[in-house]
Amino acid sequence: MKLIIWLLRAVLFVVLLGFAIKNSSIVTLHFFLDTAWSLPLVIVMLVFFSVGAAVGLSAALGVFLRQRRELARLSKELDVIARLQK
Fold it and tell me: What domain range is 40 assigned to?
């Protein structure tokens, strides 16, 4: 099973490497106040993907922390009930 996972990782790496090589042309991003950046397309895509992933994870963090608090509270309640039944 570990071999299959490593093979899938290697294939994914090769596909992403090929994608990066094919999309290495320079693009210009125009911002406000006549600011412009010229970067390779793959770098622009990587930056926007990373920012999107970080925003998505930060949005899910509140739900994750609330669920952990509720799980801890329910676990304590279960311990109390188990002690009372003894």
Answer: 2-85
pLDDT tens for the chain, 86 residues: list them.
888 999 999 998 898 888 888 877 888 888 888 888 898 888 888 889 999 999 999 999 999 999 999 999 999 999 999 888 87
The CA distance from 75 to 63, in Å, is 18
How many domains does the chain contain in total?
1
What tokens does 40 get?
């390779």
Q: Could you give the 3-state DSSP secondary structure of residue 1?
A: coil
In 3D space, the residue among 48, 16, 52 whose CA is nearest the CA of residue 29 turns out to be 48
> For the whole prediction, is pTM greater than 0.85?
no
Side-chain half-sphere exposure of 63, counting CA atoms within 13 A: 5
Tokens 């279960």 locate to 78
Please give the backbone phi and psi of residue 25, each rounded to the nearest 5 degrees, phi first.
-70, 155
23/28 Cα distance (integer angstroms):
14
